[in-house]
Design brief:
The chain contains 23 helices and 16 strands. By secondary structure, it is α+β, with helices and mostly antiparallel strands. β4 and β5 form a beta hairpin. α3 (67-75) crosses α4 (79-90), α13 packs across α14 (346-353) and α22 packs across α23 (555-568). The radius of gyration is 29 Å and the shape is globular. The termini are far apart. The relative contact order is 0.07.
Length: 570
């Protein structure tokens, strides 16, 4: 493992503005630099880089981090590669810390290494099996495309990986989803006689596989099981490989199969992703909405395709955002994106996308199917059916209002108000600029002061008590800072508290810090807020202790009361 002190030295000596400006041209904006975010499409810049904090943050999608994080997120580098790249720019040699645990001792790293070894084995096996090559040729896949997606082949052997993996009998191949342990401890490969599609997460890390049976066996497609690395409902096939096309088009097309993604990409439509054998989840939709303004679902036109589209719609509702557009395209009967683009061509595929059903249209058309909207009963029935769906649209108030207005136009019935008792389905939300007025209290200002300069934590009295979420975050920061043997800088403190229990309030504080200009006196604001908190605590102590008779007060309480009275200047 690379020593942490080397990482700190590297970041301290790296100019994050220079690193980012090399790939994303920046413009000076007060004390900071700005650009349109490279991680999602936008027309006005919300991506801010702070040279003093050596930190970047996007107010639109929530992307944030250091120079190392930027290279990992933007260039798809692994952690070690990003560190090595930055070290090379400033002439540092990357060391290894013999005292700490090495990466190979980390479980996830070991599992990832096993998957990479298996992937190479599958690619080598493909070259040795003409039948697998012929199958790919029959499907229209070129060698260049197969190499781009690292497609391979798992041989029809029970223990084909035994000669490749370091220790086939170890528990880790099973944990990686490569090996199954059957009755009496017998071990065998999960994937046999299948075309293999490696699945990578958004940063390019191999996390699992999808396998298509070469013959007529079942199941036709087999995915890796849930593992420490792989979660079907979170990942999307092709998101890493097609990240550039998705960003450039500001549109992502969600399809149902690996082959759909592969053939669309080969045809020139390099903005497709596929679910992993499950219905589209709210977490997947939310992940895509962080990247693009347009999502298009392309499903087969049969009943199964329409059911899949409806499940996708249901999971879209809690994640909808004003200004984002979601549409649905249904292919001709018997066609899927793979067959359609091969027989009809790229232009036909593009034309098909020009006529999508908007989410609102698909919603109301489906709910009103078989209803007579000319009759009061049908009008009331549609209103009743639509209400629980509209209640889920909580993150897009303008769209929610428009949907209710459209419902009223269709039925002639006043649209019902949102139910207060209906809790929206919660998904992990991307960090957003906070607009809560309650945040700007003295505890929030103190939180900002510490994040801006961690040395200010030394001035917080031991008697500090939290009365707001910001105060709870202050206590968490204090506990972290006081437990460290060495001081920590603002950049690292922000990074460590950007997520977790206090992540939301800390992100709001950081976003406001990045908007400060030269006129903002951070020291004066911090001192004033701390004085206000101390005065409030003194008033509470006076109120609490004054209610006791002098004889009931302990020596400590009498001292506290005298201190409180002096603080109040009574």
């Amino acid at each position: 493992m690379i020593p942490q002190d080397f990482i700190q030295t590297l970041l301290d000596r790296t100019d994050i503005v220079e690193v980012i400006d090399h790939q994303v041209p920046l413009k000076k904006a007060g004390a900071n630099y700005q650009a349109c975010c490279p991680f999602h499409n936008e027309k006005s810049p919300s991506f801010t880089v702070s040279p003093t904090k050596q930190f970047y943050h996007c107010f639109g999608c929530g992307a944030h981090g250091t120079a190392i994080t930027f290279l990992m997120q933007h260039s798809g580098m692994g952690f070690i590669d990003a560190v090595t790249d930055l070290a090379g720019r400033i002439g540092l040699q990357v060391p290894e810390d013999a005292r700490g645990p090495r990466p190979e001792n980390d479980l996830n790293t070991q599992l990832n290494a096993l998957l990479e070894t298996a992937s190479q084995h599958y690619r080598n096996a493909l070259k040795r099996h003409p039948a697998a090559i012929d199958y790919l040729k029959q499907r229209g896949i070129t060698g260049t495309t197969a190499a781009h997606f690292e497609i391979g082949y798992s041989e029809a052997e029970w223990q084909g990986l035994a000669a490749t993996l370091p220790d086939y009998a170890d528990a880790k191949p099973e944990q990686a989803g490569l090996v199954i342990v059957g009755e009496q401890g017998k071990r065998y490969d999960r994937f046999r006689d299948r075309i293999m599609f490696p699945i990578r997460n958004e940063r390019g890390r191999l996390i699992g596989f999808g396998g298509r049976i070469l013959g007529n066996g079942k199941p036709k497609y087999l995915n890796s099981p849930e593992t420490p690395l792989f979660h079907k409902g979170r990942e999307l096939y092709g998101l890493f490989e097609n990240r550039r096309g998705i960003q450039q088009s500001d549109t992502v097309v969600v399809v149902e199969g690996y082959m759909d993604v592969v053939m669309l990409t080969q045809a020139g439509a390099d903005n497709a992703v596929a679910t992993l054998g499950t219905a589209v989840t709210a977490e997947q939709v939310h992940s895509l909405l962080r990247r693009v303004d347009h999502i298009l679902f392309a499903f087969d036109g049969d009943n199964a395709g329409r059911k899949a589209a409806w499940r996708a719609l249901e999971n879209c509702l809690p994640t909808l955002q004003d200004g984002k557009q979601i549409g649905f395209v249904f292919l001709p009967e018997g066609e899927d994106p793979d067959s359609f683009v091969r027989t009809q061509g790229l232009d036909a595929w593009k034309n098909l996308q020009k006529r999508p059903q908007a989410l609102s249209e698909f919603l109301f058309n489906t709910l009103s199917h078989d209803l007579n909207l000319n009759a009061p009963e049908g009008q009331v029935r549609l209103t009743t059916l639509a209400k629980p769906y509209l209640d889920q649209v909580r993150s897009a108030p303008l769209l929610a209002r428009s949907l209710r207005q459209r419902l009223s136009e269709l039925t002639g019935v006043a649209a019902p108000l949102p139910s207060r008792s209906t809790a929206p389905q919660r998904v992990r939300q991307a960090p957003r600029p906070s607009s809560k007025p309650l945040l700007r209290g003295p505890e929030f200002v103190v939180l900002q002061g510490i994040l801006h300069d961690p040395q200010r934590a030394d001035r917080i009295p031991a008697t500090f008590q939290a009365r707001q979420p910001a105060g709870e975050a202050v206590l968490a920061l204090l506990g972290h800072l006081r437990s460290r043997p060495e001081p920590i800088n603002s950049r690292d403190l922000i990074e460590q508290f950007h997520e977790g229990d206090h992540g939301e309030i800390c992100r709001a504080a950081v976003e406001e810090i990045l908007r400060w200009d030269d006129r903002y006196d951070a020291e004066a604001e911090f001192s004033g807020a701390l004085s206000s908190i101390n005065a409030q605590a003194s008033r509470l102590d006076v109120n609490r202790l004054s209610g006791k008779r002098p004889s009931e007060l302990t020596a400590e309480e009498r001292t506290a009361l005298q201190t409180a009275l002096l603080t109040k200047k009574i």
